[in-house]
Amino acid sequence: MSNRKTRYLLKNIRRQRFYNLCLLLTILILSSILFAASVISQSLNQGVRNMERRLGADIMFVPKGSKENAENMLLEGSRSSFYFDDSIFEKISGIDGISEITSQCFLKSLSADCCSSEVQIVFFDPETDFVVGPWIETEYSKKLSQDQVIVGSSITIENGVIRLFGKEYPVVSQMAKTGTALDSSVYFSSSAKSDVLLHAEEKGSFLTEEQKKGEILSSVFVNVSSDVKLEKVIETAHQTVGDIFDVVYPKQLNTSLAGSLSNITGIVRILSISLTVLLFLILLLISSLIMNQRKQEVALFRILGKTKRKLALALISEVGAVSLAGAVSGCLLSALIVIPFGTFIGRSFSMPYLGPGTLKTLLLVGVISSSAVIISFLTSVFFILKVTNIQPYLALRREE
Amino acid sequence: MLRVEEISKRFKKNGRTVLDHLDLSLEKGEFCAVMGGSGSGKSTLLAVVAGFLKPDEGHVFLDGKDLYVLSDKELSSVHRSRIGYVPQSNILLKNYTVMENIVSPYTDGEKEQVLKEKAAVILSEMGIADLADRFPYELSGGEQKRVCLIRALLMDPEILIADEPTTGLDAVTGDIILRFLDTYAKSGKIILAATHDEHSKALATRVLTL
Amino acid sequence: MKNRITIALLFILTGLLITLAPTVLFKVCSTEKMKMACYYTRGAEIGLGILIAALGAVYFFFENKGTRIGISIAQFLNAVLVLVYPLKLIGLCKNSEMDCRVKTLPALIVLAVVLGGTAAANVIYLAKFGKTE
Question: Which CATH architecture has domain B1-82+159-210?
Answer without folding.
Answer: 3-Layer(aba) Sandwich (3.40)
